[in-house]
Specification:
The complex is a heterodimer. Chain A is of the alpha/beta class. Chain A folds into two domains: 4-148, HUPs (Rossmann fold), CATH 3.40.50.620; 157-297, Rossmann fold, CATH 3.40.50.620. Chain A is built from ten helices and twelve strands. In chain A, strand 8 (162-166), helix 6 and strand 9 form a beta-alpha-beta unit. In chain A, helix 3 packs parallel to helix 5 (134-141) and helix 9 runs parallel beside helix 10 (274-289). The model of chain A is unreliable at 118-132 and 269-279 (pLDDT under 50). By secondary structure, chain B is mostly helical. Chain B folds into three domains: 39-154, Orthogonal Bundle (Fumarate Reductase Iron-sulfur Protein, Chain B, domain 2), CATH 1.10.1060; 168-311, no CATH class; 330-450, Rossmann fold (3-Layer(aba) Sandwich), CATH 3.40.50. Helix content of chain B is 50%, strand content 5%. Chain B is built from 21 helices and seven strands. Chain B has helices spanning 15-22, 28-34, 41-51, 54-62, 74-78, 87-100, 107-119, 137-150, 156-168, 176-190, 214-218, 222-233, 250-254, 257-274, 285-298, 313-322, 344-348, 353-363, 395-412, 422-435, 444-451; strands spanning 208-211, 238-239, 278-281, 309-311, 338-340, 416-418, 440-442. In chain B, the strands form two sheets. A four-stranded parallel β-sheet of chain B has the order 2-1-3-4. In chain B, strands 5-6-7 form a three-stranded parallel β-sheet. In chain B, helix 20 (422-435) links the parallel strand 6 and strand 7 (440-442). Chain B is globular. The N and C termini of chain B lie far apart (70 Å). The mean pLDDT of chain B is 95. The chains are: A alpha/beta, B mainly alpha. The interface between A and B is large, with 32 and 42 residues. Bound molecules: iron/sulfur cluster (3 copies).
Chain lengths: 299, 462
């Protein structure tokens, strides 16, 4: 299932939840873990000066400093690194999202794992010049699924038993569904396919009558059956649901009610239609709010 | 120990030498060694006799010490009008002394001259426009830097920067392969959103040859994608060269004249090889100055021009908007107080003020644009020009110099600063970090892309 995992970390407590998950999966799948740390963002023109995300100090980065930081990361995770875990540690300088994507391009992992705030600490000054956050950028452009652990995941991977798959019936959602099925089969877990009918007036342009809503829910149900049921039938347990509301809130509620320990959704890179743009931000909203890890699948 | 391990007169030529010098953290040993570096007075005097243009000599001689240039220099102003910061004094007490003494100056003098040349002048050329005799101190400082570089009295980062150009023909350790690979990668990342987006490499006879700043490749590759998107949407027939793609020149800031020539010739070779109609460089001020304004002289071109017509990015952008190649959706124009940083290098020194104002008229909702005061060719340097931004040894002085721009921006009340120059962009970034005045700053490309009114056939399908 996973042979190579890229774990992007700030190597600070902010990434600890993600770290637990990363090391768990790597062990569970005997996968190779690339522990990747972007130590700071370049500043001061073309100089070597970087603000270190861990120490918050302005430092002159050279080889010696890089190896020192590598050592620090190693120490920070030392208790996880024993007993023949396959890993390496890479440290670099740059804008976190860009460098994570660059590393992914060079190493082709099957999964990128991000802590909720990876690399965004002490970046206040950059946030103003950089339009979106690390997470948004990586989720948008990565070629493999991106797993984001924003809050503590109680039992994860190995203990995974229930997945919520949120769909909006787009092409990228199909990709996300294929991935969901793959994981469910490998881990033998239950899949809940879920669609949230967006009834916010921003999206529909008008207030829907109850009849309209029920009509649309029935349509969505038919779509889910047609699109996903054949594949779902190969699993032991699955369910399908359509709720109405604000999509990202409904998905989070639904996953909580079902005791899901993973949410899978598509990330939309397309900005063609207005609705897609809103759905794109749905994933981000879900990530921030969900009590369990979220996997964003792009292509 | 006259010649040090790190600090010496020998230029850096190879990647190994670059790394070696980089390994001396912050240049601590480098500056220590500099204290005992010998001055080769004979070499310096011989160089002066060979290279010093009569114009410069005349300038030094005719200066009336009238002090009219004083108030024009922002560094003088932010340093409480210290008389030692008057442009005429700064150059007379350094270059002037060297000439008077026929090069017979000592180590301490040279280190002092280095401090003046790199921390008291950004070569912004503002004083030159106020001197009744037309004396341009910025140009003279450029010359002085050359003499200092030759003797090894040059800030650590500058020596490295010039060395990068010699070793990589780029201001950072970015190879030709890195450049093409990164460009292709970025285009791939955006091709879903812009179907048909490509980066044409080494195409002969294209309308546009595009050159960049190596920092974009290394740290801000989105900039490459943005350039590709705008050329693509405008329907331009453009290309990038596999060699000679770096338009900037830290060598110019360093005073490494030989490296300046090497660097600019690599770009000119690309022009000769690919025969484009025009060359367009990225949003960088000093890169334009190096490649388009000064470069022809370094390369010994008799007509004083690059091999093909070369324009700045803002000229192209203004043209594309004017001719309707790029259309702006009026509802997406900037609707907040916004100002623009006029880069000395192409506004004061090449008069492109109208191009940037024209762009503003397309992308800013009427009523929201506020000029800085003074502006256009009278604008002050951002505070980090001429290499000042990157030099750790003179950080304190640089931060002090940022105050002019900070106050100019604050007076406009703008929350957004357009900065179509890498160096200015950096300085403004740093000044926000230093003083936290609550501004944002941006190149033009990303802003324009957000406002584009795309023709239907260019919209992605789903
Ligand atoms: S204004 Fe010109 S002449 Fe007067 S002191 Fe300055 S450089 Fe000399
Ligand atoms: S060129 Fe600019 S920084 Fe240098 S002395 Fe003149 S005004 Fe001052
Ligand atoms: S950095 Fe910008 S403002 Fe400063 S000297 Fe250079 S072009 Fe001028």
């Amino acid at each position: 299932m996973f042979k190579k995992i890229l774990f992007a970390t700030s190597a600070t407590p902010a990434s600890d939840h993600a770290a637990r998950v990363a090391f768990n999966i790597a062990r569970g799948y005997d996968a190779h873990l690339d522990i990747f740390h972007v130590l700071g963002v370049p500043s001061r023109g073309y100089s070597q000066v970087v603000v270190d995300v861990k120490t918050k100090e302005r430092v002159d980065v050279d080889d010696e400093y890089m190896s020192w930081v590598k050592e620090e990361v190693n120490t920070y995770y030392s208790k996880y690194l024993e007993n023949g875990l396959k890993f390496d540690i890479n440290v670099t300088v740059g804008f976190p999202a860009r460098e994570i994507l660059r590393q992914a391009k060079d190493t082709n992992p099957d999964l990128i794992l991000l802590g909720g705030t990876t690399g965004d600490e002490d970046e206040s000054v950059y946030k103003k010049s950089v339009a979106s956050t690390t997470l948004q950028k990586v989720a948008k452009s990565a070629k493999c699924p991106v797993l984001i652990v924003n809050r503590p995941a109680a039992s994860f991977w190995g203990g995974l038993s229930n997945i919520t798959f949120g769909t909006d019936f787009s092409k990228s959602s199909d990709k996300a569904f294929d991935f969901t099925i793959k994981v469910a089969k490998a881990l033998d877990c239950e899949v809940n396919v879920f669609h949230a009918l967006d009834i916010t007036s921003v999206s529909t342009g008008k207030i829907l009558s109850q009849d309209d809503i029920e009509q649309k829910i029935r349509e969505a149900f038919r779509m889910i059956r047609a699109k996903y049921e054949p594949a779902l039938k190969e699993l032991k347990n699955y369910s399908m649901d359509v709720w109405e509301g604000i999509p990202y809130i409904e998905i989070v509620k639904y996953a909580r009610d079902n005791h899901s320990d993973l949410i899978v959704m598509a990330h939309h890179s397309k900005k063609a239609k207005q609705e897609d743009a809103i759905l794109g931000s749905n994933v981000e909203q879900v990530i921030v709010r969900a009590g369990c890890p979220v996997i964003s699948v792009n292509r | 120990m006259p010649e040090g391990k790190y600090c010496n007169k020998k230029p850096i030529e190879t990647p190994e030498e670059v790394n070696f010098l980089l390994s001396d953290t912050s240049g601590n040993t480098y500056y220590e060694e500099m204290k005992s570096l010998d001055v080769d007075s004979d070499l310096m005097w011989a160089t002066i006799q060979k290279t010093m243009k009569s114009r410069l000599k005349t300038w030094l001689e005719i200066c009336a010490h009238c002090g009219m240039c004083a108030d024009s220099c922002f560094i003088y102003l932010v340093n409480k009008k210290d008389p030692k910061q008057v442009p005429a004094y700064k150059i007379q007490s350094t270059l002037g002394e060297i000439i008077k003494k026929k090069g017979k100056v000592d180590n301490a003098f040279m280190r002092h001259a280095m401090e003046v040349a790199w921390s008291q002048c950004t070569c912004c050329n503002r004083c030159g426009t106020y001197c009744p005799h037309g004396i341009d101190t910025g140009i003279m400082f450029g010359y002085l830097r050359g003499l200092l570089y030759q003797q090894g009295f040059v800030p650590w980062e500058m020596k490295i920067g010039a060395g990068m150009h010699r070793a990589f023909r780029a201001q950072m350790d970015v190879t030709n392969e890195d450049f093409i690979e990164t460009f292709e990668w970025m285009v791939e990342e955006y091709e879903d959103e812009y179907p048909g987006l490509t980066v044409p490499v080494d195409v002969e006879n294209a309308d546009i040859l595009y050159t960049v700043n190596a920092r974009e490749v290394k740290h801000y590759p989105e900039d490459l994608a943005e350039a590709a998107i705008l050329f693509h949407v405008a329907g331009e027939n453009w290309t990038v060269p596999t060699e000679g793609w770096e338009q900037t020149s830290l060598a110019m800031f360093a005073g490494d004249w030989a490296a300046c020539k090497m660097q600019v010739e690599s770009v000119y070779d690309a022009m000769e090889r690919l025969k484009p109609k025009r060359m367009i460089g990225t949003e960088c001020g000093h890169a334009h100055r190096a490649t388009v304004i000064e470069g022809p002289y370094w390369a010994g071109r008799e007509d004083g021009l690059p091999p093909v017509e070369s324009i700045h990015y803002v000229e192209w952008l203004a043209e594309a908007l004017r001719e309707g190649k790029l259309k702006i959706d009026p509802s997406k124009r900037i609707k907040e107080p916004v100002t623009i940083q006029d880069s000395c290098n192409y506004i004061r020194n090449q008069g492109l003020k109208n191009a940037t104002r024209e762009i503003v008229s397309h992308i800013v909702e009427p009523g929201y644009f506020i000029e800085m005061s003074p502006n256009k060719e009278h604008n002050y340097c951002c505070g980090g020009g001429g290499g000042f931004n990157g030099i750790g040894f003179f950080r304190k002085q640089r931060n002090q110099a940022l105050i002019t721009k900070r106050d100019q921006i604050l007076k406009t009340g703008a929350k957004l600063v357009l900065a179509p120059c890498h160096n200015c962009w950096d300085a403004i970034r740093d000044l926000e970090e230093e003083f936290e005045i609550g501004i944002r700053w941006s190149f033009l490309k990303p802003l324009v892309i957000k406002m584009l009114d795309l023709p239907d056939h260019m919209k992605p399908e789903e």
